[in-house]
Structures
1.
Amino acid sequence: MPERPIRLFGDPVLKTVSAPVEQVDDRVRSLVTDLLDSVRLPGRAGVAASQIGVNVRAFSYNVDGEVGYILNPELEVTGEKELIDEGCLSVPGLWHKTPRHPFAKVRGIDLDGNEIELSGTGLMAQALQ
C-alpha cells in the first residue's frame, strides 16, 4: 500500500493516547507496511502510527539509510537535554528549538513478537524521542 497522508496538528487522533499492540495480526502487519512506506519519503526520519491515523504504539524510522519499525516502544534517554532545531511532519513548515536528550534507546517487539532494541545519538536519538 502507498504511504498514508500525515495527520496535521489539530486532528484529535494526535492527542489520543495510543494503545499497545496486543496481538500481531494482519491489521498490524498492514500498518507496519504503511508506516515503512510513509517514512521512506525524503525528509522523514520518523513516523508514528498516530500520525497516519492509527492509535497504536508503533513507529517507523528512516535515519542514515536505516529503515525499520518498532511495536510497543519503551523509551530510555540519557544525558542533559539540549535545544535542537526540529520540525514535525504534523506541523509542516515550522521548526522550533526542542529539548532533546543526546542519547535515546527504545525496546519493543517486531512482527514475530521478538524483542528488539534500537538506540542512537543525533538524528536517531531525535527520531526515537
Note: The mean pLDDT is 95.
2.
Amino acid sequence: MNPLEAIRVKLLRNGAKMPVRSTALASGFDVFACIDGPVEVGQHPVVIPTGVAMEVPAGLDAQFRPRSGLARQGVLCTFGTLDADYRGEIMITMYTVAPDIRYTVQPGDRISQLVVTRLAPVDFVEVKELSETARGAGGHGSTGR
C-alpha cells in the first residue's frame, strides 16, 4: 500500500473548514462555503469563497466538482482544477441551470467536492497521421444517444 500524500491546508479566516469525506468510501471531499451571510445563487455565476488555501504536491490532480445532491436540484458549480503552484484562496463558482431555480448558500454549506488523482506523465508528439478506428472522427452523439 502506498503511503498517504499530504495536501497542506491553510484556514484563512474564522468559519473556514477542512475538506472532509462524508463517508469512509467517498471519492470526493466536501468543500464548504466560508461566507458572512446567505448568498443567493441564480443563473448568473456567483463566486463563493471557501476560506481555504491548499498546497497540492506536484504530480497530483485536484479537481473541484459539483455535488450530486445540489445538481439534482439544478444547482451546479463549475469544474475547477487546483494547480500545484497556486496558493490563493479556493473560490467556487456556482450557478443554477434554469431562470426559475434560485438557491441560497448559507455559511458552512457544502458547495462542492474535491477529487484528487494522480497526473499521468505524458508528452505530446506531433504526427502526420493518427491510427484509424471504427469511430473515426465521429463525435457529439455519433455513437448513439
Note: The first strand starts at residue 8 and ends at 11.
3.
Amino acid sequence: LSNLEVYFSDCEKLTQVRWPEEEKDTNDAGTTLSLVIFTNCFNLNQEAFIQQSASKYLILPGVEVPPYFTHRSTASSLTIPLHRSTLSQQSFLDFKACVVVSEETVSHLLFFIDIQVHCRFRDQHGNYFEPDNPRHFSLHQKYNHLIIFDCHFPLNQDCNQVDIEFRLSSIRLKLKGCG
C-alpha cells in the first residue's frame, strides 16, 4: 500500500494509537500514511501520537497548539532563530508545523481548508531570502481541529533566522494559532 489515508471519528474510548512496526522487505518501500484524521476523538493521547506519527498530514481535535511544538504563537506567524551548528550540513529546512483552525460562525459543516506556508530567511546582515514556491495544503475538515503537517524548504546556509507565515484562503475560517 502507498499513500494510505486513515479516518477515525467520534471514538470516545480511544486513548492511544500505535502503528505496528513493519519489517520492510528490501524491495518494498512499505506503507506511507498520507493522511490520518481523528475527528472528535477527544480522549486520544495526542502528544505521544504526534511524536510517533510519520504521516504527511495529521488532524486532531483541539483549540490550541500542543506543548510538543517548542515555538508557538496565537497569531499566524512565527520567528525562529536558526543555529548554524545544527544546520551546517543541511540544504533544506524540514519541520513539522501545526495550525489551529476555527470557524467564525458555527455551522457544523465540513470546510475546504487551503493553507499556504511562506518562509522568509534572514542572514546576519539583515538581508532576506524567500523561496519562490510557498507550500499549499488543502483538506476538507471540520473546524476546531489541529492540522499538523511536514514542511520542506530550501535553506540558505548564511541565514540565522526564519519567519514562517501561515495563510488561510477562506474568510469563514480563522487561524487561532500556529507552531
Note: The first helix runs from residue 46 to 52.
4.
Amino acid sequence: MQNLVEIRDLQVQATSDAGNVVQIIKGVSFDIAPGEIVALIGESGSGKTTIALTLMGHTRRGCAISGGSIDIAGRDVVQMTEAQRQALRGTDVAYVPQSAAAAFNPALRLIDQVVEVTRIHRLMPVAEAHKKAIELFRALALPDPDSIGQRYPHQVSGGQLQRLAAAMALIGDPKLVIFDEP
C-alpha cells in the first residue's frame, strides 16, 4: 500500500526583517499511511504548525521550504505551482486551525463559509453542499444542525466554532485532514 504522505528531509528557513536566514525545520522525515492518525508532539515554538502548513505547500510570512520533499497522494507539493497547491487545498488536504474563531469571517453566515470550498472547487451543487453540511453538523453533535448554519460566528460558542471548522475541512472529502491542536 502506498503512503498517503511521505516527507523526506524537510527543511524550512525563516528570513528576518534584517535579512538574517535561520533554518527553523531541519531534516524532518515521516510517512503517513491511508487511515493512519499521526500526532506531532513538542513544545510551543518547536515547529509543529510550520510542518503542518507545509503539507499544503504553505508557509508563514518570511518563511520558505528550503529543502526536502513533501509527497501527498503521489504528488510532490514542493514542486507544484501555486495554482496546483490551491487546487490541492480543501480537496486533497484540509486544515483545521488552532483558533477556529480566526478562521471565520464575522460578516458571513456559517453555512456559507462551511460550503465555500465546494463552490471554489466546483465539487457539488449548492443544494447538495448545504445538505452535506447539515449532515456534518449532525455528525459533529452541533445543536440544531438544521439551523445552526444560519447563524454568524459570534452567535455560537468557541467549541461549536471548532466543530464548524472541522465541518468546513471535511466537506470536500479530503484525503488528509490536519488538526492544529484539536
Note: The chain is about 30% helix and 25% strand.
